[in-house]
Design goal:
homodimer; seven-stranded mixed sheet; 22 helices; 18 strands; 39% helix; globular
Chain lengths: 525, 525
């Protein structure tokens, strides 16, 4: 042991942590370091297996790690500066938690002996980060950093995958005595439970109008193949309204999608007497409204959980289809590309252009709020692609997610759809796109408005907006110049105000190398 | 009761909350609303005593509320959208907590009956917001919103002032049955403790080299007048390195300031055998470094706490000066304005221009990190002004703080000094400056670098930066065009690359109405 231990004891705790994560296949670190993370920076400098990406705001780092995870299926590392860095990172950690994305947030902290002095940047990191972490520990001893990194990596896979927080005090980072953590096996999603499948098959045969709500691995190309068999066997297949990732377009079976507004969802499900659930939970309204339902299961319908987000829902669909003897499959979507749109620019004409020009294999990062839906609908028969939604409702995910997806999906294009309100939250992502030279085409729906809120104001019965309310929901006065904002951060950009202009701009943007932005001027109403 | 109760029961909970805060003198709300806050938006629409300011990112809202509090001494209200909104707001709440700034964060939440369904935006708000709130409650019943708003207002004043969190579920906001909260008295800071003052006076007489470390109300013009008496009585007067606000310039006594780096601070205090403390805590190093001290009290020096941040430190200084029979006062700073700087643009020549041109009464918001110090030093004899520091170390405070300060300090100019790294964090503040037309002159120190981190990397002994490390600490590749970024959000801007250019640009900016930005190109080393 003396002979082999010599090398290990010359590692700093930071080096042991970084090496351990690299050993486990982590290949990207999205970082915004501070003084307490300088030894992590040095360790990253010496670790060629991990690509370090500077983000000018921590919410960009965690949004990018989420995008990276959705594309690769594996966690990226982030590097955050104490409790304040975690807070800045927090909204996109919340979104990642709701997307069941594995992510390893390494949060630097003061040296352990310094914590008792309550220095200005001191905060209760365990308390702040705990609620949105599926695992959280602090590496208070240098010898533990490697083992805890391995534990954090494994914990990010579940039972249900999600963001984990590994707090790294500065002295655990800078001291020598780091030990690389032993390799851990990657935890698997839960396999189907045979008894549940049989019960479900019986219930399907007894039901007049059965449906299945799916998410998770059921939304891969393979999972949707099994969903198509269920459809052919008479089961309506619906996805959650929002999901981390769905394979779509020509050659893929196209399931229905739960409607966003509660009253629409319940009306759409009228008569459904059995709702199977695989890879998600019983459907609930995004928000509550006076006098409207929260649970989106119609009267007389029995929800039956086959497996939650911790389960391999693709395998569940396969097992259920087998139990039902479903050999045929409903037909997949054909390839149908619309002609060139003309006239006024709006969400529908933008959707047509996207369907026309989006290359095969594109990843779509959709933070388009009120303008994203037409593009989603119009690309059902486009070239095969993957669509990634905002799962947690915290806007400002779109551009960071696109950055990380592009770094994970080398050789494939990324299309980012974002509202102007959402885009402003994390506009710093543009700079990192420029630095990394990623193939991201960002379309900003510029309507100078939180348009969704003007819709919601009416729906909640809060009354007609007066001047103050209108100002609180409007982004005009002054209008933001998105082309200037983008170019200021190094991303080439152009305006489009007609369908023809947008169509040409989008074709050019997809043909170009490196990031591009189009400010698409759409009506506010 | 039946006769008078009729009007009250027609108020929504949101209206009762907003009316109660207005009754208590709250005059500003910095907001980024979402669906669950629509009834708060309507209530603000109907409340003419509160000015509602839309911020495009929640960290701008809380930074602005902090600036408003530092200038007016009273809390502003913020409006945040669930746990995700709190997280975005969190870093500047941390800073405000460290500045002892009163602030009332109203955090919207789902309707109480909706919470059990774990909808996508649901999170543990109490858990997330608790660690950085000096008071936190949830108004789970509509009848409680007014009383809790009054309680929150009072709690924001202390014992030590700070940010409070009032969670408002959507049904408590939208239901009728709101009751305006009864008026509460404003809590006062703690008065001096006579016995402590007498003990301190005896210790001063016995000490060879006494000093007093001050913060809080001791840094007002009145407090510094008493500090000058202590100085004349042979006590060295030092402020904390960072403070919420200090009166400075001609006519004010200029105390020393604790040095930032531990080794410098300890050397500076060598021989000090008594350290009195008023309005703050014992001095500690901002960060810890291998082999360097955390507590900045030299060997052989006794720290003696006269009152912490909960105390009226100006009154403590007055009482101590009286106890010492100190009738004379050390002379205040004279008015001395430097001549026009020439040649290369750097932090020193910028400081000279600021000293020359800064109008009387200016509030300075300093988030300048490595470039702020020369401006601070060179303005000691400028026209009377107030300086506001980054107290909590979470960069991205400067521009939001300036926005709020300008709205609170009508008729007075605000100068914002920010690094380019810090400025990118919350660049959305520029848009709100433009919308509100505030008199803020923002100077961005553009060096395309987290320069402080390059200094810290060397100090922590983390080794010479390789390419990856250099990239993680550098903002070049691509260089950000601050003039375009500012103009894109409606704030007129110009570049300055020489001392002459900057001097002329600053004179023009102070003479103009409305927000202005100068990108000051300074060396990276």
């Amino acid at each position: 042991m003396a002979g082999t231990g010599a090398a290990a004891t010359t590692l700093t705790g930071a080096e042991a942590l970084v090496s351990t994560l690299a050993d486990h296949g982590v290949t990207a670190c999205f970082a915004n370091p501070g003084t307490s993370e300088m030894h992590l920076v040095t360790a990253l400098d010496r670790e060629p297996r991990i690509r370090s990406v500077l983000c000018l705001f921590e919410g960009v780092a965690t949004g990018a790690a989420d995008g990276y995870a959705r594309v690769t299926g594996t966690p990226a590392m982030t590097l955050l500066h104490l409790g304040a860095g975690f807070l800045n990172a927090g909204a996109n950690i919340h979104n990642a938690k709701r997307a069941y994305s594995p992510m390893i947030n390494v949060i630097g902290d003061h040296a352990v002996p310094h914590l008792r002095y309550d220095a200005p940047l001191t905060s209760n990191i365990m308390g702040l980060a705990g609620p949105n972490s599926v695992w959280i520990k602090s590496a208070d001893r240098v010898g533990d950093t490697g083992a805890l990194a391995a534990e954090a990596w494994a914990a990010s896979f579940g039972p249900a995958p999600g963001p984990v927080s590994l707090i790294l005090p500065a002295d655990s980072a800078w001291n020598e005595g780091g030990v690389v953590g032993a390799a851990r096996a990657r935890p698997s999603l839960r396999a189907p439970v045979g008894a549940r499948i049989e019960t479900a098959a019986r219930a399907v045969r007894a039901a007049a109008k059965p449906a299945i709500l799916i998410n998770g691995t059921a939304l891969t190309a393979e999972g949707l193949g099994h969903a198509a068999r269920l459809k052919a066997a008479g089961i309506r297949v619906l996805t959650d309204t929002f999901f981390a990732r769905q394979a779509r377009g020509a050659g893929r079976f196209a399931p229905d999608r739960m409607q966003y507004f509660a009253e629409g969802a319940v009306a759409d499900l009228q008569g459904t007497d059995l709702m199977l659930i695989a890879g998600t939970q019983a459907p609930v309204a995004f928000f509550s409204y006076p006098g409207k339902p929260s649970l989106l299961v119609p009267e007389g319908c029995t929800p039956m959980l086959l497996g939650g987000p911790e389960s391999d829902s693709a395998a569940i669909l396969a097992a259920l289809a087998d139990a039902l003897g479903a050999k045929e499959a409903a037909p997949p979507a054909p390839l149908e590309l619309p002609g060139p749109p003309t006239g006024a620019l709006n969400a529908a004409s933008i959707g047509a252009s996207i369907a026309r020009h989006m290359p095969e294999g594109t990843f779509v990062s959709d933070d388009g709020v009120s303008n994203g839906l037409p593009s989603f609908l119009m690309t059902a028969k486009a070239r095969p692609h993957d669509w990634m939604m905002l799962t947690g409702g915290a806007i400002g995910q779109g551009m960071p997610l696109a950055l990380g997806a592009a770094l994970g999906a080398k050789g494939r294009k990324v299309l980012c759809l974002t509202g102007d309100g959402a885009g402003m939250y994390t506009n710093q992502a543009l700079w990192s796109m420029a630095r990394e030279g990623v193939d991201v085409v960002t379309v900003v729906f510029v309507n100078h408005s939180y348009r969704i809120l003007n819709i919601e104001l009416a729906r909640t019965g809060a009354g007609n907006p007066g001047r103050v309310a209108a100002d609180l929901l409007g982004l005009g006065r002054p209008e933001i110049d998105w082309v200037a904002l983008s170019q200021a951060q190094g991303v080439p950009a152009s305006n489009a105000s007609t369908a023809e202009e947008f169509d040409a701009a989008l074709a050019r943007a997809f043909a170009a190398e490196g990031p591009q932005l189009i400010a698409a001027h759409v009506p506010a109403r």
